[in-house]
Amino acid sequence: MTLRTNFLWGGASAAHQYEGAYLEDGKGLCTFDALGGGSYTEPRQVTYMDEKGQVGAAAVDSSMTGPVPKLTRGYVDPNRYYPSHEATDFYHHWKEDIALMAQMGFKCYRMSIAWTRICPKGTEEINEAGLAFYDQIFDELRKYGIEPVVTLNHFDMPMYLADHWDGWLSRKVVDYFLFFCETVFKRYRGKVKYWMTFNEINVLSSWCQTGVHENNEANLAQAHHHILIASAKAVQLGHHIDPHNQIGMMVSYTPCYPLTCKPEDVLEAIQFNRQKEFYMDVQVRGYYPEYRCKELERKHISIAMAKDDLAILKAGTVDFIGFSYYMSTVAGTDPNVKKTQGNQFLGLKNPYLETSDWGWTVDPLGLRIALIQMYERYHLPLFVVENGLGAKDTVEESGAINDDYRIAYLRSHIQALKDAVRLDGVDVMGYTPWGCIDIVSAGTGEMAKRYGLVYVDKHDDGSGDLSRHPKKSFRWYQQVIRTNGEEL
Ligand code: BGP
Fold this sequence. Notes:
Layout: E1 8-12, H1 15-18, E2 44-49, E3 55-60, E4 73-74, H2 90-104, E5 108-112, H3 115-118, H4 128-143, E6 147-153, H5 159-165, H6 172-187, E7 194-198, H7 207-210, H8 217-241, E8 246-252, E9 256-258, H9 263-285, H10 290-298, H11 309-315, E10 320-324, E11 329-331, H12 364-378, E12 382-386, H13 404-424, E13 428-431, E14 454-456, E15 468-470, H14 472-482
Parallel strand pairs: 1-5, 1-13, 5-6, 6-7, 7-8, 8-10, 9-11, 10-12, 12-13
Antiparallel strand pairs: 2-3, 2-4, 14-15
Helix pairs in contact: 2-4, 6-8, 8-11, 12-13
Residues 14, 17, 199-200, 252, 324, 343, 386, 390, 434, 441-444, 449 line the site of 6-O-phosphono-beta-D-galactopyranose.
């Protein structure tokens, strides 16, 4: 047997992409509720109202860095379609969906708690109905022996905090976030023991993810410092409230290769990789790495720190590294090489690899490379909490959905994961393919870009009866889990 006997096979989702019920039972607005749909070619648009009451919209491109003008408020336009409002309605389908997860044999289920379902404005007002909703989810999961793996923040910034505090630019939001963490750590003590602090902490750049209106480098550096402090404090708080808690970080890990063996290209790749290594260095080692201090110095950016911030970072290091892996990318100095699409960070096209329908490079060996790089740098357990192929699925006349392309993608990536364990000695604790039941894409807001092992009848024009239909990959994954990855 290659993998741990207690290997955490499961699936992954995020509240704002799956739950829907965006204002139900006391939930408050989050920034993603003002983010309209987009497509492979058209960026998503966030809607806002300025101080004169004029409604505007800002493009949030695939790197999700569209600026939202200062002093505006997020605004939900009744004439627009917002994918997160219904998403695929986990809020009303949770019993059926968790039964499907149990049918696949899940050992865990990675999900996020919507901050504004618990704290509608993100402040210290609590919504009991929100707490009760997640109580029933965790009870239902545990009824089937499925461990919840909970992301405390999966991009969804409370609209009120964005509007009134400029999101993570304000130190006050750290306190509000810690209040939310304390509330859920205490409420779900004994039901949840696996947590992660911030989803893809290294890509939080747009207003939707940070609540910051003017997302220039200096503001984002300050906001990211507050987020790192919030993460470190949450780790300490979680350990204090329940010593059984295992609390990880979560990073978007896209290995970057040099375009050629030209030393300048190698240096480009080293610098590209720092976009994720910085966050891992701080959350695993507990201090700002020298290259980051030098970069801030060069850019004349000085971060406002409280006197005990460095001690907080040192004390709040994580227990494991959760990460998303979809693709690899390329860096080089040749200005004529084509840029590629990708999961936020866009690199150069790799001439040796194919891409998905949405232009994401498909590189199974890249997952083994990622696992080796992280394990040999940090020597912590690693958890693949996102991996998958966004693709168009076709429902045949018979009702079958023969997603052999998704099985091929997942099979090759699980094989690479097994090789990292078997050949490189990497300690991998689990694997949860992304969007295990079809959900809304974050980058484009599309339903057409499906990841699931279960198809949901919902379409980009808002139509569909939300019925659930296992795909061919559903039964394949059942077998994978049943044999602990031996039979792919
Ligand atoms: C990651 C996010 C997920 C998910 C995934 C797939 O960045 O953590 O929320 O969205 O990307 O991307 P997309 O949904 O844009 O296809």
